[in-house]
Design a protein that fits this description.
Strand order of the largest sheet of chain B: 1-2
Number of strands of chain B: 2
Distance between the termini of chain A: 43 Å
Largest interface: A-B, 40 and 40 residues
Number of helices of chain B: 15
Radius of gyration of chain A: 19 Å
Structural class of chain B: mainly alpha
Structural class of chain A: mainly alpha
Helix content of chain A: over 70%
Order of helices and strands of chain B: HHHHHHEHHHHEHHHHH
Strand order of the largest sheet of chain A: 1-2
Helix content of chain B: over 70%
Mean pLDDT of chain A: 89
Low-confidence stretches of chain B: none
Low-confidence stretches of chain A: none
Number of domains of chain B: 1
Oligomer: heterodimer
Largest sheet of chain A: 2 strands, antiparallel
Strand content of chain A: under 5%
Strand content of chain B: under 5%
Radius of gyration of chain B: 19 Å
Number of helices of chain A: 13
Order of helices and strands of chain A: HHHHHHEEHHHHHHH
Chain lengths: 283, 308
């Protein structure tokens, strides 16, 4: 592979990795706070993408302006999830897996009915342009997506490490009973985490839809990606999710550049299987 | 016992009393799904929840299709499909033997996706995304009057027989040493190990038995629909449907999953599909959500409730 192609592949991989890390955040946060696995995570991100697409196609506004709207549109799911997770008996891992598998199916059916026909892409002209820097061509859309993802991850990291409620969230995730004994309102900490997770998932969906086609079953692969990144990062860690995302993004770009896109999905499934066997995130 | 004989007699009737071939076909696929749910429940009997039974179904389907296309009799091909599924199950069962419930569930999910990807890309063997066509139909039996073994009627009786066999295997299992060992492993793996029961051996046995029934159903299925594609047989549908049916019917119960399979499949195909074809997976999604949130024991717990 010539050096210029390699450079281009690495840059694409880094930008893809930022997006992947952003997509995985919601899953990692819900697992961290409630020890439940959200198999509908990819479908929720995809739903955010469809909402962003619908708003963009309807209003013609710049896609980045629509991110807060799509994030807010998914907030009811946060309260629904909180109510459902509260009903599950501990340990929650297995029942939450089955429950959210049902929700994944339900959301797929919903999206199939609401947005039938061709795959959707937010193809804003301002995001489609690209600039050349020496060997590397930088697509504006992908660069903006990567920057937005980095910004969101950084802001979230600052919030959970530097604020009181952020520390409450981390304490609740580490040991719910001890946190409650220490006077932390674990119910409120769980709720705010779910609200943040759903809002970030909706935002990630809009960003995703500006660079990738969305379709009703697009979430299946996103969920698998999110699980892989969470295992690599370790439960309850945010910045390492970014590192894991970068690693996966670069690995994927190299794989596609060398062997073509056909083996992408089985490679992700293989990574998930190997990661689970080496380091299961839950019992 | 009289009740069972009555049900068996009733089950033999539909093709004989002139049901429309479409209804005969829907009933035979319902029996096939009930077989899958029973096979899935057999694995769950030892506490192992699978989110990837499509792997075993697809391996059985492809194993049978390839053997059949090589010129072997379909009956032998279906048996070969069952053997391929067992081999695939022992592989994941051994690799994931030490994983806990949720991690095992995720591993089986990834395993089915992995096989779907392999089938899509290994074009020389699997025909790639387009799959394989021209699989011969089930042969008619010379000894039986022709119209009972031909076409949809033939498939109907074969699927009914396979379901009866699966229910028989499940019933025998619950009363055998295997069932006892699996109950012990499920309820208290550490204590069972202390008593000299090797959990891994028995778990692998239930993996093999469950995959055998699932693979046989997969082989039967390809000889009924006569095509095989990766997205069809390794798709999520065949992982979800047995899981939903068995959980809705009641984990560990003998007849619950079969009743749930018949109810859900007939509702989805006969009532929902003509009205809203895009929503045909909806009943399974709703059934799963409702059962987890409101009825953890499934339908079987309703039947038992008054006696408790």
């Amino acid at each position: 592979m010539p050096l210029s192609t390699l450079m281009q592949t690495l840059v694409s991989g880094v930008m893809l990795g930022c997006l992947y890390a952003f997509v995985a955040l919601g899953f990692a946060m819900i697992l961290g706070i409630s020890h439940s696995l959200n198999l509908a995570h990819g479908e929720i991100v995809t739903l955010g993408g469809y909402i962003g697409y619908g708003l963009w196609a309807g209003s013609g506004l710049h896609p980045l302006l629509l991110i807060p709207v799509a994030a807010a549109a998914l907030l009811p799911l946060a309260f629904l999830w909180h109510w459902m997770l509260d009903r599950l008996p501990a340990p929650r891992a297995l029942p939450s897996l089955a429950l959210t598998f049902g929700w994944a199916l339900l959301l797929q059916a919903l999206m199939r009915v609401l947005w039938p026909g061709p795959h959707r892409l937010i193809s804003s002209p301002s995001l489609g342009a690209s600039t050349r820097f020496g060997w590397v061509t930088l697509n504006h859309g992908r660069a903006v997506v990567a920057l937005a993802a980095l910004g969101a991850i950084g802001a979230l990291w600052l919030a959970v490490t530097r604020t009181r409620w952020g520390r409450a969230i981390r304490a609740t995730g580490l040991d719910r009973d001890a946190a409650a004994l220490a006077g932390i309102n674990v119910y409120a900490a769980t709720r705010i985490t779910l609200v943040l997770a759903m809002a970030l998932s909706g935002a990630a969906g809009v960003l995703l839809a500006t660079t990738h086609y969305v379709y009703p079953t697009a979430g299946v692969e996103l969920t698998l990606l999110a699980i892989v990144l969470t295992i690599w990062a370790g439960v309850g860690r945010l910045l390492t999710v970014l590192l894991a995302g970068l690693l996966l993004g670069i690995a994927e770009s190299l794989t596609v550049a060398i062997s073509g896109p056909a083996w992408r999905e089985p490679v992700i499934a293989c990574l998930l299987l190997a990661s689970l066997l080496a380091r299961p995130p839950v019992d | 016992m009289r009740g069972a004989a009555l049900v068996a007699t009733l089950a033999l009737l539909p093709p004989l009393i002139g049901f429309h071939p479409y209804y005969v076909y829907v009933l035979s696929t319902a029996f096939l799904f009930a077989t899958l749910a029973t096979a899935w429940n057999l694995l769950a009997y030892g506490g192992q929840i699978s989110f990837g039974h499509a792997a075993f179904f697809g391996l059985g389907a492809y194993g049978a299709a390839l053997t059949s296309l090589a010129g072997v009799s379909p009956w032998a091909a279906i048996a070969a499909g069952g053997a391929v599924a067992v081999a695939g199950a022992l592989l994941i069962g051994a690799a994931a033997a030490r994983l806990g419930g949720a991690a095992l569930a995720l591993a089986t999910l990834a395993y089915a996706e992995l096989w779907r990807g392999i089938a899509q890309n290994w074009t020389a063997v699997s025909g790639g995304g387009a799959g394989l066509v021209g699989i011969p139909p089930l042969p008619t039996l010379a000894a039986v009057p022709l119209d009972l073994t031909r076409g949809h009627t033939g498939s109907y009786y074969v699927s009914l027989a396979v379901l009866a066999a699966a229910l028989g295997v499940f019933g025998l299992m619950t009363r055998s040493r295997l069932g006892l060992a699996l109950r012990a492993v499920r309820e208290a793996a550490d204590r069972a190990a202390l008593l000299g029961i090797r959990p891994i051996t028995w778990k692998l046995a239930s993996f093999a038995l469950s995959a055998l029934l699932t693979g046989l159903a997969g082989g039967l299925y390809v000889h009924m629909v006569r095509v095989v594609e990766p997205d069809l047989v390794f798709g999520r549908f065949f992982s979800i449907v047995p899981l939903v049916m068995a959980m809705f019917g009641g984990l560990h119960s003998v007849l619950g999953p079969t009743l749930a399979a018949l109810g859900l499949h007939l509702f989805s195909e006969l009532l929902l599909h003509p009205v809203a074809p895009a929503l045909h997976q909806l009943p399974y999604a709703v059934a799963l959500i409702v059962v987890i949130l409101y009825l953890p024991g499934g339908l079987a717990s309703l039947a038992k409730a008054p006696r408790d």
